[in-house]
Amino acid sequence: MAFSKDFLWGGATAANQVEGGVLEAGRGLSNIDVLPFGPDRLAVQKGELKMLDWQEGYYYPAKEAIDMYHHYKEDIKLFAEMGFKVFRMSLSWSRIFPTGEEETANEAGLKFYDDIFDELKKYQIEPLVTIAHFDVPIHLVKKYGGWRNRKLVDLYLRYAQTVLTRYQGKVRYWITINEINVLVHQPFVGGGIVFEETDNRQEVIYQAAHHQLVASALVTKAAHEIDKNNRVGCMLAGGSHYPYTCRPEDYQEAIKRDREGYFFIDVQARGKYPNYALKKFEREKLTIVMAPQDEAILAASPVDFVTFSYYCSRTVSAHPEDSEQATGNIIPSIKNDYLKSSEWGWQIDPLGLRNSLNQLYDRYQKPLFIVENGVGAIDQPDETGFIDDEYRIEYLREHIKAMKAAIEIDGVELLGYTSWGCIDLIAASTGQMSKRYGYIYVDRDDLGNGSLKRSKKKSFYWYQRVIHSNGEKLDSKSLSIKETVRV
């Protein structure tokens, strides 16, 4: 068998994309709560349009999302029926510290996650918890400018120490910061950063990155001190870059673009800044303020494992004007004519997942964990309400085959796999519900209409079989289309 008997199969969500209940039980507003649906969303995500409160005339999808805040028992029961060994989720910072500056945590927020962990335990599902998943209390954005200010290191550490202590014994697997390299591409999403006219944007981004890297190391240290059984990971928005042609300058561009993401993980996994990053700061005259103790902090607490998301590979050129741009993803890419594309223009490349697994394992020699993978698609229920999502099954099947090859043939050490959006949720990039990833359909549209009723897609039963067989049964031909499959 390619997959070990304790391989962690499951699914992944984020608090801001599923919970809703935005102002319930003392929760405060977060940066992600004020991302509007519609044409202004991208400018807000990039920190180019200032929107720090809800404004009239806009719809904000995160306000209610899929209301897992009130449906979590029903949802976890469905995850258990599929056979999940692990559920990757995140905590809402502003549910626990509404402004981020309180002296004591919001007990109602802590209790909410206690209840979720207890429900998971009931079904023997291991939680994999992201402490910050595109999530900064809006008060900290208004008062300090988000992660550009070193004050957030201490505030984030206090938040993390609170949850590490509270959930000791309930949670073993932690991720400090979700897709940390997204900070480069969407600074408001990744760091609560809104640019001022006078800002040197690259300097602001990498100053914020330094603060996040120091904070991540401090939290890793705290996690190990609080409970020696804790295992802490970092997370990359992954996907290898291919050179568009065999021109040497295109290959060099691919190396450069890979390093934009690897930079963060190099620091978190190896404990120090890579030389190419220091040279970048020097060459571009970026002044990154570092405290005297920071070098020692980074060196003392590298992460235990490396997690990453993978949806597609990317293609780059030193002459991008010569080629058509692919669409949809926040990280730019040239269209690769050798690959098919999803309805949102994300290019489908299962072999790219195997390539990424090998590159990351070769680079860090630490256990890996795929914590996001999937394809966004429009699902059309038939006359009975059933969704035959064979396109989703095909995507996931081919990516699982690539994982198998990376383990069996290449010797990659892989801890687990949590496919993204195991239940339909609000898409982070577009705010759409119609861009669906889940095995479970949620009756809700892009403008918040619908009953929120949950129902099982064909892929639900397929993934149930995959987990039950520990990744050995990947076909879908024998699945009964409209009857529950007993595995």
TrEMBL record:
The active site is at 372 (nucleophile). SUPFAM superfamilies: (Trans)glycosidases. Transmembrane segments: none annotated. InterPro entries: GH, GH_1_N_CS, Glyco_hydro_1, Glyco_hydro_1_AS. It holds the Pfam family Glyco_hydro_1. The keyword Magnesium does not apply. Keywords: Glycosidase, Hydrolase. Belongs to the glycosyl hydrolase 1 family. This is 6-phospho-beta-glucosidase.
